[in-house]
Write a structure and sequence with these properties.
two-stranded antiparallel ribbon; 6-stranded antiparallel β-sheet; 3 helices
Length: about 170
């Protein structure tokens, strides 16, 4: 389903929207988890328990963006289809690639294209995000979003690791 994609590197399964040097935003963060997990399970765990501030962040984003004709995304619902497939929607993202070790999600509009690629390799988890902007609004939009995105992903990775450790605990 991915019509145009690029691999991060020859040794990586992560997809990018364009060659890295042509991206307007790139972020890749990794963590070692206490046990193996699939890429789809990572996404499901993260969106089923988002940071509490995310609801407010999405409301503010939707309110400001609506002034520029951008459709609301309304955040993460935590909904998960019984039989996830390429071409399905996960909230505002389109599933473009799906395997146990790779989940690639995109959101595209006239202002920018976003790709988030979750990859797992044994216990190593990496979340790679790439963005191509198409106009001034897309570039301005990414100014606050770029820094916030990095902090949110870092927090999500730490929270996921702590949850997995807690779930493994005999006291859990």
């Amino acid at each position: 389903m991915i019509s145009k994609h690029f691999f991060l590197s020859k040794s990586s399964n992560a997809y990018l929207l364009a060659p890295r040097e042509k991206l307007n935003f790139y972020d890749a963060q990794s963590i070692i988890l206490p046990k193996e997990i699939t890429a789809p399970d990572v996404w499901q765990m993260i969106v089923s328990n988002p940071l509490s501030i995310m609801k407010l962040a999405f409301r503010v984003r939707d309110k400001i963006s609506s002034c520029f004709g951008v459709k609301p995304i309304k955040g993460f619902s935590g909904q998960w289809p019984d039989n996830l497939q390429v071409g399905d929607q996960l909230d505002f993202f389109l599933v473009e690639h799906l395997s146990p070790n790779v989940l690639t999600l995109t959101a595209r509009d006239k202002h920018l294209d976003v790709m988030t690629c979750i990859t797992t390799d044994k216990t190593k988890l990496t979340i790679t995000s790439s963005v191509k902007t198409h106009n001034l609004f897309g570039r301005i939009y990414m100014l606050p979003v770029a820094n916030a995105h990095r902090l949110i992903v870092r927090s999500d990775l730490k929270r996921l690791k702590h949850k997995m450790i807690k779930d493994q605990s005999p006291l859990a």
